[in-house]
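Sample entry was shown:
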Amino acid sequence: MEIRLVKTTDADMLSAYHLKNADHFKQWEPKHDDDYYSASQLKIRLASFVVAQDEGRAAYFIAVENSEILAHCSLTNIIYGPLKGCHIGYGVAEVYEGKGLMMKVCKQAVDHAFNKLKLNRLMAAYMPHNSRSETLLNKLGFNQEGLAKKYLQINGAWEDHVLTSLLNPKNT
């Protein structure tokens, strides 16, 4: 298995991954247009993703094996200046849930954030009933900071989220 940043040529694999896991992911994602995960729409978005990666404004990791994407992790909303922080989001194919794959992908993203991008703070949010995310973030060393009411609109409903962060240990 390879964990790497996305490329513009990954559109077909990403489309297959998201379409295959659509029912699994919809409980954790905003509602999207029907063609949001089509290869043609992903090609358009991947072009901007790669530019953002090249400029240090984002990083989109995927775990790939035998030309199939197994998991993804993104560093987005990167802010430099006095904050030096970003949001981290992730997902894993339903068949790989609970097998430790998400931990590996997230660890690589955290390492990239702290060592390559030189960020100070990573922020993650999860819905209170998402025990898998809670466990993953705890194992990664994230600390709970609070509860945000109606924080994100997920699958058509405003959902509360537990706010967490991980600080770069080199900056303490």
In short: The beta strands are 2-5, 59-65, 68-79, 85-92, 121-126, 143-154, 157-167. The longest helix spans residues 39-54. The CA atoms of residues 13 and 68 lie 6 Å apart.
